[in-house]
Amino acid sequence: MKYKRILLKLSGEALMGQKQYGIENEILAQYAHEIKRVVESGVEVAVVIGGGNIFRGISAGESGIDRVQGDYMGMLATMINSMALQSALEKAGVSTRLQSAIEMKQISEPFIRRRAVRHLEKGRVVIFGAGTGNPYFTTDTAATLRAIEIEADVVLKGTRVDGIYTADPEKDKNAVRYENITFDEVYEKNLNVMDMTAFTLCKENKLPIIVFDMNKKGNLHEVVSGERVGTLVGF
User: Fold this and answer.
1) pLDDT averaged over the chain?
2) What is the residue range of 95's domain?
């Protein structure tokens, strides 16, 4: 395997499948199977999952909810998704630990870096919930921060598209996919990979990002094996 320790960032919206909101059990089971296959090949896996399928803090203002309050509500949404993923992984026979940036001792451990690393070394999948624990930060930023803290080799961003394109491939049929691109090129071309805080953290800490289609079976294993899947953002 090319990567020994990975941070897998999943979007909450991806869990919806064909639904308008909530969690599609088939998608959840598929993700658990994909992660299990990678764990069985000896890779240490940490996961951060968004909460957009349940609640988006950034859009809370539209409904009159205070932004800070909305962001905390979004963090709770990520915990619901994290618990669902944990359940699916355990059902598939994968040992897991859920750590939260906000104390919820009945359902998770607090985030403790050394403990998280120890779990990974023992072959457990560690799921990081509740973002960074602070408002105004996205789950992209939380994923990047946790990846740096646990010294992951790469951030794998699983999306609905198979990489980074010159334009939105769902809107522009002429969009061309990049196989490799540098951090500076992403800045120059103003491409939407992650929010700027998360992206800058990766660049400053020399942490590569791979954007790939998580919904295609076998893709996660191929990415971790070093196959040319998705788009690599590097130096």
Assistant:
1) 94
2) 5-234
